[in-house]
């Protein structure tokens, strides 16, 4: 397959070692910026068709905002200022713009935003860390994040507080992340992924590291209770927690997600939070 944008000049790296160890805010941010820059091309090639160019999908189950209306009825999005965090190639923001909203797509990865430019659509793009949003207080009516930032940050309360700051009163922050239950199971789509292999209560981050022990990818585990307490500590009121069921039409595998596992255990959790 031809590369979908100009071939990256980033060097090839040896296969990293997977482990569980602590990783702070700085290490997590640096590692994940580098990982997404290196892997953005492959990600868009593998998942671009499923995600579409202007579709708002909350996770691998395929729950679509057209049906879910977690940000509100589509007709009420017109004229709203909306920030998408961890936007990738800005597919969700492009859908929001089609509803008449004024979205801004933010991502940590320069390479992911290059894909947003490749697809086009005129959505404003911002390269920044979710924990240090470069916007004035009360800039947005809504903030959303479909598997962006929240699974990868070491200090989720810091992100939630900054989102609270840039939201206007009455606004909401809706974000999806890996369902905490999934951390107890191997990340395998087949039968081998159906047996508990680790403690649900082990919050030690999943880290992939290079030969020198430097993190090149970090993902952070929070229990459901942790996520709820984080939302409250960030100044929000949790109004809904959605656990999408795997639909019959979705026959694809996405990493550890699959129809087999999706029909038995939840894969995603979507938190609907309101700034009073």
From TrEMBL:
Which organism was this protein described from? Answer: Streptomyces rectiviolaceus
Q: Which Gene3D superfamilies match?
A: Vaccinia Virus protein VP39
Q: Does the keyword Mitochondrion apply?
A: no
Q: Per the record's keyword annotation, is Transferase included, yes or no?
A: yes
For the region Disordered, give the residue spans.
1-32
Q: Which processes are annotated in GO (biological process)?
A: methylation
Entry superkingdom: Bacteria
Keywords assigned by UniProt?
Answer: Methyltransferase, Transferase
Pinpoint the Methyltransferase type domain residues: 83-175
Q: List GO molecular-function terms, semicolon-separated.
A: methyltransferase activity
Q: Which protein, by its recorded name, is this?
A: Class I SAM-dependent methyltransferase
């Amino acid at each position: 397959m031809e590369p979908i944008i100009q071939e990256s000049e980033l060097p090839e790296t040896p296969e990293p070692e997977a482990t569980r160890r602590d990783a702070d805010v700085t290490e997590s941010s640096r590692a994940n910026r580098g990982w997404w820059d290196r892997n953005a091309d492959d990600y868009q090639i593998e998942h671009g068709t499923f995600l579409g160019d202007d579709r708002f999908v909350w996770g691998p189950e395929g729950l679509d905002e057209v049906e879910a209306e977690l940000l509100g009825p589509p007709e009420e999005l017109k004229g709203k200022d909306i920030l998408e965090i961890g936007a990738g190639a800005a597919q969700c923001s492009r859908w929001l713009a089609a509803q008449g909203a004024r979205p801004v797509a933010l991502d940590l990865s320069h390479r992911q935003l290059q894909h947003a430019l490749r697809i086009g659509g005129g959505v404003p793009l911002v390269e920044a860390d979710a924990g240090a949003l470069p916007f004035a207080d009360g800039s947005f009516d809504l903030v959303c994040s479909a598997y962006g930032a929240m699974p990868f940050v070491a200090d989720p309360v810091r992100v939630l507080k900054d989102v609270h700051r840039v939201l206007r009163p009455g606004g909401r922050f809706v974000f999806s992340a890996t369902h905490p239950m999934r951390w107890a199971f191997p990340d395998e789509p087949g039968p081998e992924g159906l047996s508990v292999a680790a403690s649900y209560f082990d919050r030690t981050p999943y880290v992939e590291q290079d030969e020198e022990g430097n993190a090149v990818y970090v993902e952070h585990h929070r229990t459901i209770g942790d996520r709820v307490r984080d939302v409250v500590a960030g100044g929000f009121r949790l109004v809904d927690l959605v656990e999408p069921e795997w639909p019959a039409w979705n026959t694809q595998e996405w990493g550890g997600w699959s129809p087999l596992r999706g029909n038995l255990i939840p894969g995603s959790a979507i938190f609907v939070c309101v700034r009073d």
